[in-house]
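Appendix B, record 7
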Amino acid sequence: MSLELNEIFSFIIEMDKLKSVLRKTKPVGLDRYENTAEHSWQVCLLAHLLVGRSAIPVDINRVVEILLVHDIPEIDAGDQILYEGRNADRANKELEAAQRIFGLLPDPQAQWCMGRWQEYEERKTNEAMFAYAIDRLMPLLHNLNNNGQSWRENNVSLDKVLAFNAPIAEACPEVWDYLKVLLAQAPALHLFNDSELLDKN
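Structure tokens (predicted):
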């Protein structure tokens, strides 16, 4: 019993490192980048608030479980902005990180975490698809309320924002339709007024 508790305690202290993994977006009204731990909490709350608008049936408890662990490998792998794309090297790095970090836990907790993380990565279940949509939604809301901060800093075009976030439509079409209205207004709000951001090439 004491060995299992020590492993669980070691793992949960390892989670403190998520607080130092910086993302590309800044919290609204703050001049610092958000960390992954903050993001994980916020997407869990958002999932609960929007589950009634899901176009697919989901078990919200499982969605939250997935969201709680989905970014844990960033402790080793670091954050990567969505718009850079993902290659085999990045995928392998995240898998190795997941194996190391979840391996700190005793079974069955290690298998539980790895299972939820893999479910998110594969996005074959309704819960994983909904979790992914919510994960995509939160940075959009930050940018729409932060004058396009991370889009500007990373030269992300409106076309790319629409393309990379289209999976939201499958899980939450009503939410996506409303987001498209907000994004269409973005040029008027000077979010995409730089010529390089309007470049369609």
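Remarks on this record: The two ends are 60 Å apart (CA to CA). Confidence is low (pLDDT under 50) at residues 194-201.
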